[in-house]
Design goal:
single chain; alpha/beta; three-stranded parallel sheet; 3 strands; globular
Length: 65
């Protein structure tokens, strides 16, 4: 299965909902497969623009100490 990830853990930009919606629209005009965005586990609540009909992707890293 082909899947396009349009971003990964852009924590500082996750809240820019209008810009991300423009990006998603532009991608949808050019790419017809499934798309996703990979949010960081501690910041996914700030992503208000989750890709409509896309794949939910949550990055969970393991901390080693």
């Amino acid at each position: 299965m082909d899947l396009l990830c349009i971003g990964c853990e852009f924590n500082a930009n996750d809240g820019d909902e209008d810009n991300w919606r423009r990006i998603v629209t532009g991608v949808r005009e050019r790419y017809f497969g499934p798309i996703t965005y990979a949010a960081n586990h501690d910041n996914y609540q700030n992503v208000k623009w989750w890709v409509p009909n896309g794949v939910f992707n949550l990055q969970i890293g393991r901390l080693y100490g």
